[in-house]
Specification:
Layout (H helix, E strand, L loop, with lengths): L13 E3 L5 E3 L7 E6 L6 H12 L1 H6 L2 E7 L3 H11 L4 E4 L4 H5 L3 E6 L2 E6 L2 E5 L5 E5 L7 H9 L2
Parallel strand pairs: 3-4, 4-5
Antiparallel strand pairs: 1-2, 3-8, 6-7, 8-9
Length: 154
């Protein structure tokens, strides 16, 4: 469960994207950012979520957003995922989950009756000044762009 809320300063980060280049929050200064955490490349729900953002990329850009996805997968896995599904945005490598933890997107999960810790599917909308505009914790993978744009129109 995210401890961050609307109006909070987004935690800074620096980590590689799929190309190996580093990205930091400051790279998005002056832009709005969809900063979304997802558990794993090439899994059914994560793929639906990424493809929904891809399919609505132009509308999100028109609303002023850049998109940056985050998971613990390697740069190579991210590159394969991007190429396979023609994703027009970058994916950040959070190998040690430190970014997910800083954003409160890390915690207890349950699957098939087993409890474990992992990335919690969470999206942060960050404004041009680095403040959190909104936190979407109940992400609907096939409706994600509409959730983001719905926040925009509130």
């Amino acid at each position: 469960m995210s401890h961050l809320k609307k109006g909070d300063k987004a935690p800074d980060f620096t980590a590689p994207i799929q190309t190996g280049e580093e990205r930091s929050l400051s790279d998005y200064q002056g832009k709005k950012l969809v900063f979304y955490f997802y558990p794993k490349d090439n899994t059914p729900t994560c793929t639906k979520e990424a493809c929904n953002l891809r399919d609505n990329y132009k509308a999100l850009q028109k609303a002023g957003y850049e998109i940056l996805g985050v998971s613990a997968d390697s740069a190579k896995k991210h590159t394969n995922f991007i190429n396979k599904f023609e994703l027009p945005f970058d994916l950040l490598v959070d190998a040690d989950n430190s970014i997910a933890k800083a954003y409160g997107a890390w915690g207890q999960k349950q699957m098939f009756g087993k409890q474990y810790e992992g990335i919690l599917r969470t999206t942060f909308l960050i404004d041009e000044t680095g403040k959190i505009e909104s936190v979407i914790q109940k992400v609907k993978s096939t409706e994600h762009a509409n959730q983001i744009l719905g926040v925009e129109s509130e």
